[in-house]
Amino acid sequence: MPQVHIIARSAWGARAPRDRSSVSWDARTEVVVHHSAEPAMQTVRSIQDFHMDGRGWSDIGYNFLVDDAGSAYEGRGWLVAGAHALGHNTSGIGICYIGQNDPTSAAKAAIRALYDEACDRAGRRLAAKGHRDVNSTTCPGDHLHAWVHDGMPAEGPGGDRIP
């Protein structure tokens, strides 16, 4: 499976993090899917600004973000602890769909590609979860949550599902 193209922090104008904690691949056991719950025209930088200025976090909370065009953006990256799911920020790689509950096929394909890449890098199958599976929330919305639990099927005939 080909690796997903990830837009680097420098390309989307990320601010420098105030602090970062590294995580090993041994600690990674899951991928946690989120949605921003805001309009899809939101920018990665606006999400980072909200997390850093509005919530006082050290950086954007997610490890990766995906927009409706299927573009994947580096948030904290593969081996930096996130701030996306209480009790799962070290074990989980947080992937956020930028939008509400209606991801495009391109967005779902990018989320799935990030999941597959995470499993390849970890050298094993990681659990796929929606944010509501690990915390008391409605995130990532009913549609996206159902898709994650249906095995993140690839679109089109014979689309594969994760086991």
UniProtKB/TrEMBL annotation:
Under Enzyme Commission nomenclature, its number is 3.5.1.28
In the record, the note on similarity to other proteins reads: Belongs to the N-acetylmuramoyl-L-alanine amidase 2 family.
Molecular function (GO) terms for this protein are: N-acetylmuramoyl-L-alanine amidase activity
According to its UniProt entry, this protein's organism is Streptomonospora arabica
- Keyword Hydrolase listed? The answer is yes
What protein am I looking at?
Answer: N-acetylmuramoyl-L-alanine amidase
InterPro entries according to UniProt: Amidase/PGRP_sf (IPR036505), Amidase_domain (IPR002502), PGRP (IPR015510), PGRP_domain_met/bac (IPR006619)
Keyword terms: Hydrolase
Answer whether the UniProt record assigns the keyword Hydrolase to this protein: yes
* Residues annotated as domain N-acetylmuramoyl-L-alanine amidase: 16-141
Q: Where is the Peptidoglycan recognition protein family domain?
A: 4-135
EC main group: hydrolase
